[in-house]
Amino acid sequence: MSIIIFIIILGVLVFVHEMGHFLFAKLFGIRVDEFGMGFPPRALRLFKKGETEYTLNWIPFGGFVKIHGEDSLDADDPDFHRSMMAKKWWQQVIVLIAGVTMNVILAWFIFAGLLMAGSPTLASQTQDPSLLKNTQLTILQVAEKSPAESAGIKAGDTITKVSSPSAILTNATPESFTKFIQATKDGEMVTVSIDRGNEHLDLAALPVAGIVADHRAIGVSVDMIGIAPGLSFFKALSEGAKSTYYATTGTFVAFGHLVTGKISLETISGPVGLTKMVGDAQRIGFSYVILLTAIISINLAVINILPLPALDGGRIIFVFIETIIRRPLPKNFVQWTNGIGFMLLILLMVVVSVKDVIKLF
Predict the structure, then answer these.
(1) Mean pLDDT, residues 278-306
(2) What whole-number percentage of the chain has pLDDT above 90?
(3) By the 8 A CB rule, do 352 and 273 touch?
(4) Same-domain pairing of 204 and 301
(5) Average pLDDT over residues 157-170
(6) Is 18 an active-site residue?
(7) pTM of the model as a whole
(8) Are 352 and 269 in contact (CB under 8 A)?
């Protein structure tokens, strides 16, 4: 079920992203040859409408829109005037940035919808956590082979109390919970009191070093989850915009820390890791699956706007360079650069996926 839900989520996010490129390309009179779900090789041609083929491809972790002349094109091409290259630079940039924009807008609508519906919401994804009612410290994720997993702690458990031989913590927040675990002495067990549905459990775990750099931990991710009060339409849109901004800037900061080495590559999850997150989200509740969709959508937007070849950000850089030098970049250079960039992205996805699979055993 987790795999099916993840594929549906990914399909929706990719469809929204590629639809942004598609709509603005059509708006500016650019020829679109193919709208593909998944990456080639092609599995099935669904249908053809006008000049555009709609296809289903074998690699399910992505999608694409094949825009005429997007990478490069000779000026003597018979349909050059309908190519990407023939359009003004700002039109090209709008087409390229439209996918990212659609993903951010989708996240905004999801945040606003949850706030308007009065659904369970993460405090960390809310600009004003005081809006939430009946907040509880909740386990979001449990690391594989961690003390928490060995103790039987599961995603969706709500923490009522944490105790050690020397201290007791009630009414915990994510910050106080983390500090409590870090402050335990070497070899000192902690008892985590949790509610799981109608069941109350006291589970013992031994904090260890190595899960989190320089600190002892039991291997859980926690946050305060509360009920949004059911805001009015315009108030929900306003608060949803704030949440979107907060989540987007936080994602950029996280990528910056990744580049500078402040956080490890171990924190990156591929399709396998994301499928596990979806499974954890299911146990917390359907609204958290929807919230996770918004967070993944923002991550997809941030990744695509990075100035790397084959990504939208890299293609925008090429447009700016061509505008400055007032001539197209060599066709072979553009195609090879984007091709190499694409292969490196696929390689990274494979490496991360292998890492995620190893974690499962």
Answers:
(1) 85
(2) 35
(3) yes
(4) no
(5) 91
(6) yes
(7) 0.76
(8) yes
